[in-house]
């Protein structure tokens, strides 16, 4: 029995030693502790992002992490954390980050699922709107009744007849809206449209624009997902002789003559990220692309293999080929994106209301509402509706609301009322109704503010992300000051570094050449023969590409050895080349001049030299930080860290 107890105790002791604790200090930088839990979390988070396998080694990663903490320590020593610009940028980020943690998960999940249903379906509808100012909360019955009568007319007379008579584009709007899905309209309108059966007219409802009725004509599944390939000719061309519109039309003629889309994309598309894949793009859904013209054309193609005519976007001229069309994406694939959209949308107000309800219980909020509002009613006057009311100097002391140990005073609520006077300008509203409405808004504001102010101490995930950004932003400012700007401004040091490392910056063999390409070997053979007769390229092209038929396309530039445009076995010599079969086409190359391998000048290699010089400066600087600050690693804590990481 004693042996069993001893074994169990030993096992518990071993497990305790192997498990990283929250108060474990992994190392110190001049006495400042860095916790083991922070290192484990950062290591696990970045593990999949690290491409260099050596950096996945825990000891190697620890060295990087120590260097990171040395830089943060140096930034604080220099007072960068007290810089006004840094503080402003950090606070702006904190405000944005807080939004991701200010939600009720259950309500959010319901809204996200609803958003999925609405983004995967479209509604075709028309509506009638009678405008009314958003701030008007009373005396709206007359407007409601007016819209109710218009609804009856739409049912009896048809939408078009009513539209012609009532639409004035000022106070009354009767509009055809076409098809729309989720997030395309304000949330109350979207809800009314999706909840109204096909063929029906909704009851009047209000949005921030006024009162509406909506007539629903049709509901259908959304467009889904399209996969296309494209050939793009950029508006900006290195070859001044190339007219983008003419070039795309030349390519289109070649397609009509039977040449392969993929081959022409490889040869002539200026979208290098897709050209070597035959122009193929990643799948996309409606509304995902920046270029609406491109999206419209892509979804208009019906059958696999269908091709568009040339069309223009802000990026250049395109020809699109449909590879595949499929239905809507599964919920799990778009859930994250939808959640972000829900939190940015007006439906987030529903999330806030649910969150406030939970927080009131969590923070044990105490209200003095009845007595408090009765008192506030006695100090309001008509000046409130003229934006001239001010908080009385002798306003009552005491707490109107208590959130844990934080007291919200009558003076705080009065200040809130002063800030919203404009909302009630020149309106006569009952003070009791006004105070009840604005008290609820004030209470929600104060509870959410308290939650924001204490989030860093209550939510471990939020605290970690915030610290990451706090330190990362400091590090950015420090690196900009000590490394990046230093390398750019230190022209003497840069020239010296370049001189000492000039062998690292060389041109491969290059040619100043014109590449002439065609899908027909016979045509290229004729082009080659003409070139050998010293006939100008322009003359050859004008002779062969006649009667609106484009058999040959030329590209003039300086090409470096290894360029994807050049055949792999291309021979670097002046004159007319042999005929090459490359990228599923035939080419002959007129080499005007061979530029042999040579060292680059500083101007030619400037970008790479600056980058290398920055790395050189950083290495020396980190070495100096290791001398300035004393780093002590707890070997036992490191052992526990390694066991935990390897166990996972």
From TrEMBL:
Residues 1-18 form the signal peptide. It comes from the Bacteria. PANTHER family: PEPTIDYL-PROLYL CIS-TRANS ISOMERASE HP_0175-RELATED, PEPTIDYLPROLYL ISOMERASE. It is an enzyme of class 5 (isomerase). This is Peptidylprolyl isomerase. Its EC number is 5.2.1.8. PROSITE patterns: PPIC_PPIASE_2 (PS50198). Keywords: Isomerase, Rotamase, Signal. InterPro entries: PPIase_dom_sf (IPR046357), PPIase_PpiC (IPR000297), PrsA_foldase (IPR050245), Trigger_fact/SurA_dom_sf (IPR027304). GO terms for molecular function: peptidyl-prolyl cis-trans isomerase activity. It comes from Psychroserpens luteus. Residues 120-218, 223-324 form the PpiC domain.
């Amino acid at each position: 029995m004693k042996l069993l107890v001893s074994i169990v105790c030993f096992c518990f002791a071993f497990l305790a030693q192997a498990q990283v604790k929250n108060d474990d200090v992994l190392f110190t930088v001049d006495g400042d502790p860095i916790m083991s839990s922070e290192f484990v979390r950062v290591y696990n988070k970045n593990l999949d992002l690290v491409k260099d396998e050596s950096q996945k080694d825990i000891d190697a990663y620890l060295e990087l992490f120590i260097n990171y903490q040395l830089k943060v320590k140096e930034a604080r020593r220099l007072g960068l954390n007290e810089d006004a610009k840094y503080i402003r940028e950090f606070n702006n980020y904190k405000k944005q980050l807080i939004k991701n943690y200010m939600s009720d998960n259950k309500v959010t999940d319901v809204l996200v699922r609803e958003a999925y249903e609405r983004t995967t379906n479209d509604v075709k509808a028309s509506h009638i709107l009678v405008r009314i100012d958003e701030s008007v909360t009373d005396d709206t019955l007359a407007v409601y009744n007016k819209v109710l009568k218009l609804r009856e007319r739409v049912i009896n007379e048809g939408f078009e007849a009513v539209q012609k008579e009532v639409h004035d584009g000022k106070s009354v709007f009767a509009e055809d809206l076409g098809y729309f899905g989720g997030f395309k309209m304000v949330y109350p309108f979207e809800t009314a449209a999706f909840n109204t059966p096909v063929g029906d007219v909704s009851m009047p409802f209000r949005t921030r624009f006024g009162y509406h009725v909506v007539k629903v004509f049709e509901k259908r599944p959304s467009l889904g997902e399209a996969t296309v390939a494209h050939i793009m000719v950029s508006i900006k061309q290195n070859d001044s002789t190339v007219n983008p519109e003419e070039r795309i039309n030349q390519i289109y003629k070649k397609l009509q003559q039977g040449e392969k889309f993929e081959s022409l994309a490889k040869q002539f598309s200026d979208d290098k990220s897709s050209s070597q894949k035959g122009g193929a793009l990643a799948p996309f859904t409606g509304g995902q692309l920046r270029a609406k013209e491109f999206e419209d054309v892509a979804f208009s193609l019906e059958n696999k293999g269908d091709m568009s005519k040339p069309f223009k976007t802000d990026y250049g001229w395109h020809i699109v080929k449909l590879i595949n069309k499929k239905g809507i994406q599964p919920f799990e694939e778009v859930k994250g994106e939808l959640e972000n959209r829900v939190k940015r949308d007006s439906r987030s107000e529903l999330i806030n209301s649910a969150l406030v309800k939970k927080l009131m219980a969590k923070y044990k909020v105490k209200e003095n509402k009845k007595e408090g509002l009765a008192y506030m009613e006695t100090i309001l006057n008509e000046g409130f509706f003229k934006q001239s009311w001010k908080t009385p100097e002798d306003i009552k002391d005491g707490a109107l609301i208590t959130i844990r140990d934080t007291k919200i005073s009558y003076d705080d609520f009065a200040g809130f009322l002063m800030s919203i006077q404009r909302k009630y300008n020149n309106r006569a509203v009952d003070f009791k109704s006004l105070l009840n409405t604005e008290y609820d808004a004030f209470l929600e504001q104060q509870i959410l503010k308290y939650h924001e102010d204490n989030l860093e101490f209550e939510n471990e995930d939020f605290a970690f992300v915030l610290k990451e950004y706090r330190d990362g932003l400091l590090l950015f400012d420090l690196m900009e000051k000590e490394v990046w700007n230093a390398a750019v401004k230190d022209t003497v040091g840069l020239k010296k570094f370049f001189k000492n490392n000039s062998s690292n910056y060389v041109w491969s063999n290059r040619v100043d050449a014109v590449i002439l390409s065609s899908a027909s070997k016979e045509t290229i053979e004729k082009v080659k023969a003409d070139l050998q007769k010293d006939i100008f390229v322009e003359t050859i092209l004008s002779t062969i590409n006649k009667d609106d038929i484009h058999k040959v396309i030329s590209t003039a530039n300086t090409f470096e050895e290894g360029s994807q445009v050049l055949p792999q076995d291309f021979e670097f010599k002046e004159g007319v080349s042999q005929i090459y079969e490359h990228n599923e086409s035939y080419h002959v190359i007129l080499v005007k001049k061979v530029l042999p391998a040579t060292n680059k000048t500083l101007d030619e290699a400037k970008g790479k030299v600056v980058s290398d010089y920055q790395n050189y400066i950083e290495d020396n600087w980190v070495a100096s930080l290791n001398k300035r600050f004393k780093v002590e690693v707890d070997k036992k804590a490191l052992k526990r860290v390694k066991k935990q990481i390897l166990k996972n």
